[in-house]
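Incident review: delayed structure delivery

Summary: a single-chain prediction request sat in the queue longer than the usual turnaround. Root cause was a stuck worker, restarted by the on-call engineer. No data loss occurred. The affected request and its eventual output are reproduced below so the record is complete for anyone auditing the incident later.

Affected input:
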Amino acid sequence: MASIRISAYTDQLSVKAGDTLNVMASADATESVRAQLVRLIHGDQHPDGPGFIEQIVSSPIDRDWPVRKQYIQKGNFLRVADVAGKLAPTGAFTLHAYIFPTTPDAGRQMLLGRWSVDGTAGYGIGINPSGRLEFWVGDGTAADAVAAEVKLIARVWYFVAASFDPATGVATIYQEPVINRYNSLLSKIVPYDYRSHVSETLRARPSVPADTGFLIGGATERNPARGAFVGQCYNGKIDRCGLQSGVLERTTLDAIRDGGTPEHKNIIAYWDTTAGYNPRGIGDTVLDKGPHQLHAEGYNRPVRAQTGWNWNGRNDCFRLAPEEYGGIEFHADALIDCKWQPTLSLTIPSDLRSGVYAVKLTCDEAEEYTPFVVRPVAPKAAICFVVPTASYLAYANISGALDSPAQAVHGATSIFDEVDVEAYKNNIEFGLSTYDLHDDGAGVCYSSWRRPIINLRPKYRTPGVGPWQFAADLSIVGWLEAMKYEYEVITDEDLHREGLAALKPYRVVLNATHNEYYSEKMLDATEDYLAQGGRLLYLGANAYYWCIGFRDDEPWVMEVRRPEGGTRAWQAGPGEHHLASTGERGGLWRHRGRPPQKLVGVGFTSEGMDQSVPYRRMPDSYHRAVAWVFAGIEYDIFGNTGLGLGGAAGIEIDRYDLSLGTPPHARILAMSEPFTDNYPLVQEEIFFMTPGLGGTQHPYVRADMVYFTTPNNGAVFSTGSIAWGSALPVGNFANSISRLTKNVVDAFMAAGPLPGGA
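Output delivered after worker restart:
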C-alpha cells in the first residue's frame, strides 16, 4: 500500500480578521484530509523543554476535505502569447539569439521555438543530447534536424541562428563565438574552434499545433496525468533574440552578431532583453520591439539584471549600462509558485487573537502544517513580536544541511529526519533555498512562500543544529505565553509594507532568534522606531545582515544577491551584484554603511554548531544604571542550559564594536564563555589568512550582551546569540535566561524613563 503524503502551503503568511486565507494542498494515496485550525505555542520537541504545544481552535474548516495530487512546473522560461499566429510562419524564417549555455551536456534543451515534444510537431532551435546546437522541425508524425559540427562550450557566449525554407527543405545552422575579454569563462587565448556552419535538406516540414505556444527556454509537453506542461528547460543565459522572415544571409547574421539591429522589414518578433530597465529594477516582461508587440512573460522568475554578451567589465550595474545587461538567466530546476488550486479557504474570525497559527492537515499518521500569523486589526497590546518571514524564505527547503560542508560547520555528523531524507530522495521537488545551487552551479537568488516549505514546520529540527528559525522562534512565543504577557504578532513582511506604522503602536518590540535578511524599508522602520522612543529586545544574532528586495507586484518572492563579502553559500558573478527587484546593490548591509552595530549595538562575528556556552557578567553590569537587569540572577556565570546545543550563547553570535557603530554609551552586560575552534571568525573580518582565528584564540569570537538607551526614553537590549531563544523554555521557563529576559521586558513596558536612564 502506498504511503500517504500531504504537502501544502498558504497564499499568505500574514492575515488579520476578515481576510481570506487559502490553503493549497496536494496528497498521494488519499482522497481526503482532515483540517483543523491550531494555535502554535512551542515547536521544539527536545526532552529538556516543554515539548510540542499546540491549541486546537474551533473553526468552520474543522472537517474532512477532498484532496488530490497537484503537479509542479519547475524551470523558468518565457512564454509568448500569439493569438494571431504570427509565430507560426508558413514561409521561410530565421531564428537567432545570443546564448551562454551552462550545462550543454545535460540533455535536450530548447532555446526558442514552438515545439510539441509529445506531438513531434513544430520547430525550434536548441541543444541536443550530445551538447550540440540543433534546429529541428516536426510534422506531427516525424521529425528531422540539422546539428552543428562542434559541441557548445559551457559558460561561453555565442551568437547562434537557424534558417529554414519550407519550399526547398534547406535548413542552415549558424554558430559563432562572441567572446570578449570579460564576458566568458574562457579567453581568446584558448585555441578552440567554436564556429559551425552547416546546411542540410530536411524531409519534414513544420506543422505547428494551435495549442503549442512559442517558448523561450522550454518546450511544450503533455501527458495524461498532468496535461500540458513545459519540459526541455534550458540552463544558461539568453540575450537579445528573435524570429525573422526569410533566410538571412551570412553577412546579415554577421552584422547582428557584431551588435547590429535586425532590419525592421524582416522582423516578425525581436525580444530586446535590455529594454524596460529603470532605476528601481525590472520585471518579468521582455519587450518585443517588432511590429506585432509579442511581448514575452517570465514564468518562475527568470533571473534578470545579469550581464549580457557585450558586457565589457567596466560597469558593475545595469543602471549604468542597461545595453550590457541583456542576459536573462534560466534554470531548469527553478520554482517560484506551484500555482496549485485551493483545497480549502478560511475567513479569519474577528475574535481570533493575534498569534502564530497553522492549518493542520491529517490523514491516518500523515500530517502537514501550514503556518501563518494573525496580526491585529487595531493594535492594543504593549508588546509586539516580529516574525522574520524573510529569513524563513532565505532558508526555505535548504538542502545544504544534507551535504558534507554543513557537517564541518556543525562539528558533528548530522542526524536527519525522515522529511530530510524524503526531500533529498525527491530532488528537493518543492524548490531550493537561497543557500543552494541550481543544477548548473549558479546560486539561487530567489525564494518564495507559494510552495510547500518543509523546514517551515513547528516540529522541524535542522540536521546538526536542532531548533532553528521557525521552531526556535516558537520558543519565544512559548515564553510569552508562559509569562502571561498580552502580546501581538506581526511579520517583517508587514514591516516592509507599512514601515514605521507597523511598529509605532507598541511600547516594546521583540525580535526573533535570526532576522538575518532585511530590506531597506524594514531597516528604516526599525531605526525610526528606536529614534522615536521605541524599546527593542533583540533576542538573537546575525540579524540585519543581508540586503534583500521585493517587488510590489509579487511580495511573496524575495531576492538576495551575494557579492564578494560575507559568510555566503555562493558568490554572484562579476557585474551581477544588484537586485533586479529594486535596483539597489545587494550584499551585506555592513558594506552599504549600515552595520548591525549601528542599530542594535552588536553584529555578526562567528558561527559554530558543535556546542553553546554560558555567559559571564561583565563589570558594566554592576553599574547602578543597569544592575536591575540582573535582579534575581545569583551567579556571575549563567545560561549554562538550553535546547540549542546546551547553552544560551552559541550557534551564531554577535559582538560589540565601536569601530562599526556600536553606540558609545552602550554597556557590555555579559560576554560568553570561550567557544571552541569550531567557531571561526567571520570572513568579512579577515584580510589575511593567518592562524589563530578560532574561538579559543581570537578575541572577536564572542557573544556580547549589550544595553543602551535611545532618544525619547527608548532603549535596546541585545543578547548576541541565536541560542538565547532556545534557552528560555528550560525548566518549564524557570531559569536565569527567562528571569533576565522578564526583567528587561517588565522594565521596558513601564511608562516614562527607564531605570538608570539619567
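Verification: The longest helix spans residues 736-749.
Action items: add queue-age alerting; document worker restart procedure.
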